[in-house]
Design a protein that fits this description.
The chain is an alpha+beta fold. The chain has one domain. The protein is built from six helices and six strands, in the order E-E-H-H-E-E-E-E-H-H-H-H. Strands 1-2-4-3 form a four-stranded antiparallel sheet. A two-stranded antiparallel ribbon has the order 5-6. The longest helix has 10 residues. This is Transcriptional regulator.
């Protein structure tokens, strides 16, 4: 179940355009729900609560995989002292130098730059 913002409506800064519930993440990745919970615990995937339901930003789960560089970036952000909500805000904060948001850049050729910036936060 993906919850997207209606057309013409602005989403809050630092928020993804769409969410996907954990059971749907499991189905999309073709893994048991327990594996999704494990991925969240191990910081290979980022989840948060919205309206009482744990959800994942939809664009972090592309096709049948998690974005390749996401686990590394989440580890770097955690090591820099970011909690899950702060990491989510950082990933979805618009950044003109990346041509969008760090989350969007992770899916393209700017992933190394996103990782470098996340690493610099720890210093």
């Amino acid at each position: 179940m993906t919850d997207s913002v209606p057309v013409g409506e602005l989403r809050p800064a630092g928020e993804p355009a769409a969410w996907i519930a954990l059971p749907d993440v499991a189905e999309k990745l073709d893994v048991p729900i327990t594996k999704v919970h494990q991925m969240i615990r191990e910081r290979a995937l980022l989840a948060t609560r919205r309206d009482g339901i744990r959800v994942v930003p939809a664009e972090l789960v592309t096709n049948d995989t998690v974005l390749k560089h996401l686990p590394g970036v989440l580890t770097l952000l955690h090591d820099a002292g970011y909690n899950d909500e702060e990491a989510l805000r950082w990933l979805y904060e618009p950044d003109e130098t990346l041509g969008g948001t760090p989350a969007a850049a992770l899916g393209g050729d700017r992933a190394r730059e996103v990782k470098r910036r996340a690493q610099a936060l720890g210093f």
